[in-house]
Design a protein that fits this description.
Radius of gyration of chain A: 26 Å
Strand content of chain A: under 5%
Number of strands of chain A: 2
CATH class of the largest domain in chain A: Mainly Alpha
Strand order of the largest sheet of chain B: 7-8-9-3-10-11
Shape of chain B: elongated
Distance between the termini of chain B: 36 Å
Helix content of chain A: over 70%
Strand content of chain B: 25-35%
CATH topology of the largest domain in chain B: Rossmann fold
Largest interface: A-B, 26 and 30 residues
Number of strands of chain B: 20
Structural class of chain A: mainly alpha
Order of helices and strands of chain A: HHEEHHHHHHHHHHHHHHHHHHHHHHHHH
Radius of gyration of chain B: 25 Å
Oligomer: heterodimer
Number of domains of chain B: 2
CATH superfamily of the largest domain in chain B: P-loop containing nucleotide triphosphate hydrolases
Helix content of chain B: 25-40%
Number of helices of chain B: 9
CATH superfamily of the largest domain in chain A: MetI-like
Strand order of the largest sheet of chain A: 1-2
CATH architecture of the largest domain in chain A: Orthogonal Bundle
Chain lengths: ~575, ~375
């Protein structure tokens, strides 16, 4: 507030005509324009302009193509099913853990966070190994055991895609709602009991409406994630020609093998995808009344837990059974298949070997991909982290006139599907604007920075809001320059947020598939791409072994992060 | 008529860090119909837990509770009536007004769950709103309203069913001091109009004294004293109650040959009557405004510090080793360093609290 209308005297406080504040503001805008705005504009330009003239033929052709329309309906159908079912499942578990007296809550909670750690396409691979109609292990076992005529399950279907996405996305609602329930003032519910309402009535009329904002925030995340999701429909849909918009875009571009026409078609279809996502956002806002209630006040009384009595054991069994299916089964399947001597052999001890894992180290493509992913995750983590801190500082502390625009631009890539961002980056940085990064690792790095800067920006913003401006002023009045007050006071105070910001980027970057699958060149495969290509080339066991290795890597990094975070809390 | 009866009520909590804590210890209490009864005590004394057991939000570890002659919690018979079937009105410290419902819907909620018909519902809500000065605000959502307005909604919601018993859980502590005073008055007016018994919890002694017919002081899960505000103020049963109900001056004294000598001064006895059963070491308690400070007779002392306040003067004077506080009207002025004489009319005598008791009290604050 204080600095919003900077007067000349204030600016002179910095001792320079061109103040550091101004420099940081302009730098933030310039970087975001290069990284985010130009790629987006390139998509629009290349779709609607041919040789500098406005032309909508390509766009109309693309959106009228029945194959694309079919893909659009599939995308919408899948996303709606995943959202509705995921919200129901998430709400059920949130209530169970937040309000009932079910035992083993801590264990269940930590299991619910596991799907967050692994990319959904690992799950898709695992479930295909179990339930593909022709060779799924579970299908085969069911057919032989019960003498069935045909495989009872078909994971290569809309239903299969919905099931796998559901098991990865329901924690979005669960996490939001369970934390809302925990922060909620319990007397809001108690006063309804005193007023004469029965338990179930209180849940319907008081608890549910009050957690509606949290529920709809979680549901929104599911909806947008599912609409732009690439991995699961790519793994499960291609073989049965079930396409969604993201996989269709990928198909258009890879079929044209990098020709400009193919990329333009992809760009046009991307616009359709973005329109669908925006429509979904708008529709959700229109249907669900959002807004947040102030439900976090009063004494920190423990809420009265609802006694499940007779239902306790059955609900416990159901919970653990579903957690086992969602969390344990896919992980186990990946590891077991990774150990097999050859794909198709029964999963028994005598067929297991560690050779696949050893071979991975001798495989040039795999070794490259590990190196590439490590480089990309660390580099994009560090760069996007500092960029995010700078933007957050400009937005929260300098507060220039265009701060809202700055905030919107930095969050934009977060709601734009990764595959769309990839196309924009290709169009912008493969020679059209004089700089050709195509087939190099740098084009992937630029895309990652754009994609993940919102993560660190949000984390740094939240932390900067806690740093009162008087702290920096005190440093200035003690004789520090503006720059010194920044490096000696503000940055150390938000260091925890910077560290967590780095890992918020490092972890998803490690397993990224959607963006890099369009951007990789012969020597710049990432881990995700390597697993994906091994699998589509038929090297199922190698793909599983590499996925298992990635899982191990993610677990180790997570353990390190947790150790750091714990240490900080103690100190 | 006995409205609320608590018999041998005990409640234990078990926490990971502190083990088992007896929040309420063998409590016996009878509250009469129409009374305004308050539970008073420091945080962690068990007053809120007792109220929540009456409301039905906490089960008992032992004992029984009867409301209006009906058993609602009887541990020995495993009888427990849930809160919604106890027919009580309750106002919470945080008001607990539902932000997703407007004022009318908030106040009508208890009638709606009782399936009261539309016409009667409107009539009763209108009456409740009128008595809480909320008429005309039916359609307003409570989110943006002030604490005082939210408090009124909570009151209206509690009286709309005409309950026989109204439970108030620190109802005024979230309001600013001025509003607090006028709300006290409004609550009393509502009680006259709707004729309910009030049980309320507070840690503010002046609030308790202004509102209650009788009050109960609790400490560490036990009842320390029950009585009218005057009884408790003038005849506190121990040092704790004395201190809790107003400004107190405590002086450690040694008793020798039936005379009381302040600690650190074996020469001058205090001009007081020592109780017959006094032990060798006692605490003499007085109120700072009841000490007589004069220039003629009494215990010889010296003014250490004088502060001039708006309504009275405050002196710190020496009594043996100790320095005690005295409040006097302005007409009686002493200079710093001046010699003065003290008399202690209405002094009370207590055995000193042990240190273990103090440690236990501190431990309970953490629960």
């Amino acid at each position: 507030m204080r600095r919003s209308n900077v007067n000349p005297d204030m600016a002179r406080l910095d001792g320079k005509k061109f103040s550091m504040d101004k420099f940081l503001t302009i730098l933030s805008f310039v970087i975001l324009i290069i990284v985010v705005i130009i790629p987006m504009l390139m998509i629009v330009y290349n779709t609607f302009f041919v040789d500098g003239r406005f032309d909508t033929t390509l766009f109309t052709e693309i959106i009228l193509d029945p194959a694309n329309v079919g893909a659009m309906w599939n995308t919408i159908k899948i996303a709606l099913l995943v959202t509705v079912l995921g919200t129901l499942v998430g709400l059920f578990f949130a209530w169970l853990l937040g309000r009932s007296d079910i035992p083993l809550k801590g264990l269940m909670r930590s299991m619910f966070t596991i799907p967050y750690m692994f990319p959904p396409f690992f799950g898709a691979m695992a479930w295909e190994l179990l339930l593909s109609p022709r060779s799924g292990y579970l299908n085969n076992w069911l057919v032989t055991t019960f003498g069935l005529a045909s495989a009872p399950f078909n994971i290569n279907s809309i239903g299969g895609i919905v099931f796998v996405e559901l098991s990865y996305y329901f924690p979005f609602v669960f996490m939001q709602v369970v934390s809302a329930l925990e922060r909620m003032d319990p007397t809001l519910e108690e006063s309804a009991r005193i007023a004469g309402a029965k338990q179930w009535y209180v849940i319907r009329r008081i608890t549910m409406p009050l957690v509606l904002p949290a529920t709809s925030a979680g549901a929104l995340l599911i909806l947008t994630s599912s609409l732009s999701h690439f991995g699961v429909p790519a793994i499960l849909g291609f073989s049965k020609k079930i396409y969604t918009l993201p996989t269709r875009i990928y198909q258009l571009i890879s079929r044209a093998s990098g020709s400009f026409q193919g990329i333009r078609e992809g760009a046009a279809l991307s616009i359709l995808l973005v329109i669908v996502v925006m429509l979904a956002l708008w529709l959700q806002k229109a249907v669900l009344k959002t807004g947040s209630y102030d439900i976090i006040k009063g004494k920190s009384m423990r809420p009265m837990l609802i006694k499940l009595r007779g239902a306790k054991i059955p609900l416990l069994i159901i919970s653990f059974l579903s957690l086992f299916v969602i969390v344990v089964v896919p992980l186990l399947m990946i590891v077991l298949v990774g150990l097999l001597r050859a794909y198709g052999l029964p999963l028994s001890m005598e067929n297991f070997t560690l050779d696949n894992f050893v071979n991975l180290f001798n495989h040039k493509m795999v070794a490259d991909s590990v190196k590439n992913s490590l480089f990309l995750s660390v580099a994009s983590g560090v760069i996007a982290m500092f960029l995010g801190v700078m933007i957050a500082y400009v937005i929260n502390k300098i507060r220039p006139r265009g701060k809202t625009a700055l905030e919107i631009i930095s969050i934009l890539p977060y709601s734009i599907p990764g595959i769309v961002l990839a196309i924009g980056v290709i169009l912008a940085w493969s020679g059209n604007l004089g700089l050709n990064l195509y087939n190099t690792i740098w084009i992937i790095l630029v895309a990652y920075i754009a994609r993940y800067v919102a993560f660190s920006m949000k984390s740094a913003s939240a932390s900067l809001q806690q740093v009162h401006y008087s702290l920096e002023d005190a440093a200035r009045s003690s004789g520090a320059t503006h720059f010194e007050s920044l490096t000696d006071i503000t940055l150390p105070l938000i260091r925890p947020a910077m560290i967590s910001g780095f890992f918020l980027i490092f972890l998803p970057a490690m397993r990224e598939l959607t963006t890099s699958v369009l951007l990789y060149g012969p020597y710049t495969r990432t881990l995700g791409v390597a697993i994906y290509s091994l699998r589509s080339d038929g090297y199922i066991v190698d793909a599983s072994a590499l996925a298992a290795m990635t899982i191990l890597l993610i677990i180790i990094v997570n353990a390190i992060v947790n150790a750091i975070v714990k240490d900080r809390k103690k100190g | 008529m006995d409205q609320i009866v608590l018999k041998n009520v005990t409640k234990n909590f078990t926490t990971k860090t502190l083990g088992t804590v007896t929040a309420v210890d063998n409590l016996n209490l009878t509250i009469q119909k129409g009374e305004c009864f308050s539970f008073l005590g420091p945080s962690g004394c068990g007053k809120t837990t007792t109220l929540r057991m009456i409301a039905g939000f906490e089960d008992l570890t032992e004992g029984e509770i009867h409301l209006c002659g009906r058993p609602v919690s009887v541990k020995s018979k495993n009888l427990y009536v849930p809160p919604e079937e106890r027919g009580l009105g309750m106002v919470f410290q945080s008001f607990a007004v539902w932000p997703h419902l407007n004022i009318f819907e908030n106040v009508a909620f208890p009638l709606k769950v009782r399936k009261v018909d539309k016409a009667q519902m409107h009539e009763r809500v209108a009456k409740a709103l009128k008595h809480t000065s909320l008429d005309g605000m039916e359609k307003v959502f409570p989110g943006s309203l002030s604490g005082g307005q939210q408090q009124r909604i909570a009151l209206a919601r509690a009286i709309v069913t005409n309950p026989e018993v109204m439970l108030l859980d620190e109802p005024l502590s979230n309001l600013d001091p001025k509003l607090r005073e006028s709300m006290r008055f409004e609550i009393k007016e509502l009680q006259k109009e709707f004729n309910f018994t009030i049980v309320f919890v507070t840690h503010d002694q002046s609030e308790a004294m202004a509102l209650s017919d009788r009050m109960m002081v609790m400490d560490m899960g036990k009842v320390i004293q029950v009585g009218t505000p005057t009884e408790l103020y003038n005849q506190p049963i121990n040092q704790f109650v004395h201190k809790f109900l107003g400004l107190s001056t405590f002086t450690y004294v040694n008793i020798r040959d039936g005379k009381a000598y302040p600690e650190g001064d074996p020469e001058n006895a205090l001009p007081v009557e020592v109780p017959a059963n006094a032990e060798s070491r006692m605490i003499m308690a007085t109120r700072p405004n009841q000490i007589d400070m004069n220039r003629t007779s009494g215990y010889p002392s010296e003014v250490v510090k004088r502060s001039f306040l708006t309504n009275h003067a405050e002196y710190l004077v020496k009594v043996g080793d100790a320095v005690i506080k005295i409040q006097t009207p302005h007409r009686n002025e002493f200079a710093q360093g001046e010699t003065c004489y003290l008399r202690f009319p209405g002094a009370m005598w207590y055995a000193a609290d042990s240190e273990e008791l103090e440690a236990e009290r501190n431990r309970r604050q953490l629960v």
